[in-house]
Amino acid sequence: MRMVIATCSVDYDGRLTAHLPLAKRLLLVKADGSVLVHSDGGSYKPLNWMSPPCAMAEVEPDEAEAAEGVVAVWVVQHAKSEDRLRVRIHEVHDDVRHDLGVDPGLVKDGVEAHLQRLLAEQIEVLGEGWTLTRREYQTPIGPVDILCRDATGQSVAVEIKRRGEIDGVEQLTRYLELMNRDPHLAPVTGVFAAQQIKPQARTLAEDRGIRCVVLDYAELKGLDDTTLRLF
Amino acid sequence: MRMVIATCSVDYDGRLTAHLPLAKRLLLVKADGSVLVHSDGGSYKPLNWMSPPCAMAEVEPDEAEAAEGVVAVWVVQHAKSEDRLRVRIHEVHDDVRHDLGVDPGLVKDGVEAHLQRLLAEQIEVLGEGWTLTRREYQTPIGPVDILCRDATGQSVAVEIKRRGEIDGVEQLTRYLELMNRDPHLAPVTGVFAAQQIKPQARTLAEDRGIRCVVLDYAELKGLDDTTLRLF
DNA sequence: CTCTGGATCTCGATG
DNA sequence: CATCGAGGTCCAGAG
Fold first, then answer.
1. Which amino acid residue lies closest to nucleotide D3, measuring CA to C1'?
2. Domain range holding B41?
3. B138 in a domain, yes or no?
4. Sign of dihedral through CA atoms B3, B9, B11, B12?
5. pLDDT tens for residues A204-222?
6. Between A156 and A144, where is the model more confident?
7. Within an 8 Å CB–CB cutoff, is residue A101 touching chain B?
């Protein structure tokens, strides 16, 4: 990892054309040759960058550039496309390198897939006597998160989101319309399950006869742990 | 901008739970208090981060942490949610600060909006005698990029993309179905215009009677400059 | 390998 | 303020 604080201008040419006027910025050169240009604000997205695979070459400024005060030019060329980043450096304020080694990587938890697995394993959370038919039940317009049966044996399609918004209700509605045309499945009712359900989404869902269930992730996980402990 | 090279472990708790095992990494603290944790590879996305508005506090490690070799703990708390990032530092290899000032920001060019403007101004590129009706023609399911008329006066809906893929053809198809139900407009034909059109998208479009046009951005811009020079 | 859908998405435009 | 769409999206999982 090379970290350079420099007064520079930057030009990207590739899928679009973009220009950064002269200013003091942080330039990061990673071990794989990728380059990030960061300012002192904004989110995690750099102002400009080149993703790997790519190669960085430091070249001498041409006459016109030298006349403008450019002391070095970085040309970062993507290996598999015509994407190119050009950094014109006017002044270097700092330039240090550190060997970081390979990162062991991120461990994630709590994503939608995990919620789906937990709820599928504990489908009785939705009602006593409910049974799982299957996860990722395929329909011609995509997979329904969970298909199950209520205590009376009637089919129920469950759509799971971390944050329940209107588009999730629309998605479930499309599945229900389709599945209710299938005489082997119909009648199919719907459950919209999410860690958090926005008021608009709840109103729309309930207006369409879809039941809304707020999932407590910690509780589901706790039940899961308890279940595991019993075996 | 504070740049710290440290051996650390990181825990994020908020919209999900994520953990980074002990390793040597770059920690960036921006002027607005946001924190990025970068490894020496991957893309521009940090391994972990906290977006502004947030505040970073450096606290003493508790007894258990100290026993594990933690010398400092950073607690980064989001200002408007319960999102929290915890960085446990075992060793600091470097720690420097630089004042970068406010960045003048990015200047973009070549985006879809620009293509739309250029093509609207030079609609005759699609055919001699073609005339512009209007840009962003509103329909109940969204705006059509360009509505125009061919030399015979028949309406044509134009969908513009930088990269033409199947979803763009589907979008245009929906507009055409809707517009052809309107007796004042029908019959409406379609043009799918993009800088690059994928073979699958072209096949689908042509199968539906939609004409495909590959746009040359440099040429459109050149024609635009020429036009400007005439006035 | 390509394709698909989610994301701690980010970012900008628009009502 | 929220919503909507696009992204140099990135990213992981499935086919």
1. A166
2. 2-97
3. yes
4. positive
5. 889 899 999 988 877 777 7
6. A156
7. yes
